[in-house]
Amino acid sequence: MNARICGVLSANLLAAALLFAPGAAADTIPGADAAIGKAESALGTDQFGPWGCEAFVAYAFGVSQAQYGWDGAAETMYQTLLQRGQIHTDMDAPRGALVFSKSPYGAHIDIARGDGTYISGGVQGLKRGYGDGHNIQILPTPHVGSGWVYRGWSLGYPE
Fold it and tell me: What does pTM read for this prediction?
């Protein structure tokens, strides 16, 4: 085989490997920075109440929560995304990913900040007195304590 053809094939293979590598930059969420900025503007408040994780995430992304139902929307979204094969179970959620967990209290949804921390709403409904005592906080894990199960993340809302 000609050296020139080998060089072109090698370059194409390298480009494909980088493009489709796990954790590649292709895993981005449209509007993630704006959503995180909006979410962070509510930090330390009690907006959306002690069980308002779904409403908080919908607010941050500017999505109507009504399309997923007001009660149990985190579970509805998770199940829809799971059925479509859009849930990733690794712990490397990119910035702006929707992150799901569950406990005996029910399903929960956070927003990944892309640095291993999560913005969460409804924290006091999950664990009274946790952190700074407010409903909207930055969490070091995608849940607030024992009994919680990490379920995975998605690049966005189901359509």
Answer: 0.78
